[in-house]
Amino acid sequence: EAIEKGGYEHFMLKEIFEQPKSIADCMRGRLNASAGELTLGGIQNYAEALAQADRIIIVACGTSWHAGLVAEYFIEDMCRIPVEVEYASEFRYRNPVIKEGDILIAISQSGETADTLAAIELAKAKGAIVFGIVNTVGSSIARATHEGAYLHAGPEIGVASTKAFTAQLTVLIMVFLKLAKRKGTIAESRFRELLIELESVPQKVEKALKSDDQIREISELFKDAHNFLYLGRGYNFPVALEGALKLKEISYIHAEGYPAAEMKHGPIALIDENMPVVFIATRDSSYDKIVSNIQEVKSRKGKVIAIVTEGDVLIPKMADFVIEVPATHEALMPLVSVIPLQLLSYHIALMRGCNVDQPRNLAKSVTVE
Ligand code: G6P
Fold this sequence. Notes:
Layout: H1 11-17, H2 19-27, E1 31-32, E2 37-38, H3 47-52, E3 56-60, H4 62-79, E4 83-87, H5 88-91, E5 103-108, H6 114-125, E6 129-134, H7 140-144, E7 147-150, H8 163-183, H9 188-199, H10 201-208, H11 212-222, E8 227-232, H12 237-251, E9 254-259, E10 276-280, H13 287-298, E11 303-309, E12 321-325, H14 334-351
Parallel strand pairs: 3-4, 3-5, 5-6, 6-7, 8-9, 8-10, 10-11, 11-12
Antiparallel strand pairs: 1-2
Helix pairs in contact: 2-8, 2-10, 4-8, 4-12, 8-9, 10-14, 11-14, 12-14
6-O-phosphono-alpha-D-glucopyranose binds near residues 63, 108, 159, 161 and 362.
């Protein structure tokens, strides 16, 4: 087992640090930025049906569901197709409206999640075309779908999903950039720019990982907190949900993720000097708005930990702690901004003496209801 952990103390830490490589593996042979090409061998026969879709339904559970939420923002932005993201467990039992030829995308690391598999079977029975975004080759979900794209992220052992999340985002971005190109909903220049940016993501993730020591120090100060709030807007809203989930899963600290603007409809009542609030506040189209949200928290004495874009000069004046990540296009930022949140949950859990790789009551793959 020590060999499998490759020198790291835990599988989770190994998998977090593996991300520059797993993201690159996921793009290998598929992305050719200089030629402006994306090749996805697994999505061919039904590519035209995807291009004709008047809506897309995404089903998943847990972290994979969060990847689906990022995809919703991306697909609507780039492809102009309406998207609904559903918890597989709700979708399968609520008599959903699905018509012949509708497109369903199932996202699953393990490919064995019972609810996701049942959602696929239901959709297929109603005539939907189902694509799988799956890590485990030959898994039940991979076999049940019509077509799909594997993550090629390598096996994920830690129960809390990390490298699968970033690989899911990478694949989804490639699939839907290609679709946007095919549909003509993206300008050639923007398409090229995003391909080049995507190619540079592994280096940016590598750089984001360099904050590990700083994050360990911050973790020391917050390890005894009873609650955490994670706030983000736009593409970083699902990242807030994912950050909160990571912390809950392995440190057993209660954490909630919220869209930052929605805070005033409830969570703001929780803020006092004992409430750590993690803002994912990188430079993007909602930057000014999130700066105001930080002010709202600070004026109520909340403790702010902000994930910011490298070189930000404004937020460091307001926040208690800032963690920098390299700049990238806002649609790709979740690939980078999630990294410090994974590390934060890891260090806090470790300091609290929790079993990081096998948290209580959780399973790597939930094959029963
Ligand atoms: C379990 C795991 C999570 C995972 C979720 C969905 O809850 O502990 O890490 O995100 O299942 O699993 P899947 O394999 O379908 O992505």
